Each structure stands twice: as structure tokens, then as C-alpha cells.
Amino acid sequence: MILDVLGSMVGKLLSYSQAFIRPIAAATPDIIAATVNDNPEFILKVMDELDAKTLAEAFNDRPVFVHDVVYNLDPISVANIINDKPEFAIDVVSSLDPVVLSDIVAGNEIFISDLISMLDPKTLAFSLNLNAAFVAEIIKYIDPAVIAATVNANSAWMSRLLPKLNVKVLGGIFNSNPDWFRSLMRELDPETLAYMAETAQELAVELVRFLEPADVAETVDAFSDFIAEVAKSMGPEDLAKLINRLLNSPAGRELVFDLYVEMPFLERAIKTKTIITGAHVRGLNEMRQAPR
What we know:
Number of strands: 0
Number of domains: 2
Number of helices: 24
Structural class: mainly alpha
Distance between the termini: 72 Å
Shape: elongated
Oligomer: single chain
Strand content: under 5%
Order of helices and strands: HHHHHHHHHHHHHHHHHHHHHHHH
Low-confidence stretches: 1-20, 275-279
């Protein structure tokens, strides 16, 4: 009860003015982190009264301090706080300076990877779906290798997240940063991506509809060997199901045709495992024979 009252009072004071934040910032980062780690219920009470934008502005003014606090945080405690107050967390993150946020992420790769694996996938999906423009802007400042390491280490969690994402939002983020995503692909593990493709086929198929065809074609040309490794890592039945689904839409057919041209090994899989019409066969053969 005392902690509840005290937490409420602290939150109100911090929201009133950044002047009340300065004395807290005078403490060392490890002390602040220990306070968060050891008193999650108290922190939640503070957050009930704290203004997210005021907190974000304080973070923006003290990026090095915040980076050092994050370095000392316990991902379990932070994940529990975020899962309990997702809207507050979203408001803080969306008010951060993208450069400040990217520096925090880049300097705390292990923490970020551990944290993400403990978050409720619905929480992160909700955040991404509501803040597409911010996400499209922020990833420009984040090293793709950092994100790839997180994805590679959390394939099962990612497979739970992906179906909850809005494909139109995700397509827009891809289209805004095609070069960044190509850099990301260079760092991804083909087996991890194959597992995600198997478990989130519906999203993969729908996503193709919202991608820029020119970017898709360029990616296929540049990463044909990588895509081949992903396809080979998929189970034959799952690969056939994915191809069947892709063939049911114009954008998906175009992608299959491009892959067919680039990867002859897919020919047998397509003809023996896939429900393919005569029109599809003619289209595939025309693509194979067309000058590149």
C-alpha cells in the first residue's frame, strides 16, 4: 500500500516537469537499473501516473545515460513491465529520437535479443501495426546484423509474432527500406527463415501482394543462392503448399516464375509436388526461355 502511494506520487512529480527527473539522472546507471530490476511493481505504479512523452524527452536528452541503464537492466523484469503496460511502452518508444533508440539497440544486442524472446508477441505486433511510419524510419539507423542476430536466436518466437502483423503495414515498411532488408537477408540463417516460412505461410503469401515488384525482382536476382538454401531447408510438403498458395495470386505467380528461372532445382518440386495448371506450365516455360 505504501509503495502504491509512493509510486503514484513519484509518477506525478516526474510527469509535472523534467526538473524532477534531473536528480534521478544524477544517480549512477547501475543504481537506476537495480531499482527497476528489484521493484517492478513500484515501477508499474510510477508508470500509471507518468507521462510517456515527458519520459521520452528525458531519454532523448541523456542518450549515453539511458544506454548505460539499459545495459544493466534485467530483460525478464523489463519484459514483465512492457507486457503489463504495452500502450505506455509504445508511447515512449514512438516519442524517442530514432538515432537515440538505434544507439540503445546497437549497444545492447544481447539484452534486446533476450528481451524480445520474453515479450508477448501480441504486444510487439500491436506496436508495429500502430507505428508503421516510425518503424520504417527507425530501422534506417539500426544495424541489420543486430536484428538478424535477434531473429536467428528467436525463430520460434518470430513464428508466433508474424501471423499477428498487418501485412499491408509490413509491406509498406519493406518498400520504404528495400536496401536495408537486403542487407538483413545477408545476415539471416536460411534454416531460420525456412522455419518461419513454413509456420507463417499465409502472411508470406499475402505479403507478396503489397511488395514493389521491381524490389522483389531485384532481391531474387541478388539473393538467388540464399533463397535456394531457404527453399531446400523447407520440408517438401511445406514448400509445395507455399508454391501452391503463391500460384493463386498474380503477384505470387510472378515470384514463382522468377524463382523458377533462377533456380532450376525448383522445377522438379513444382512439377511433382505442386498443383499446377497447363497455363502455369506455359508461363513457367516462357519465363525460362525469355532472355535475361
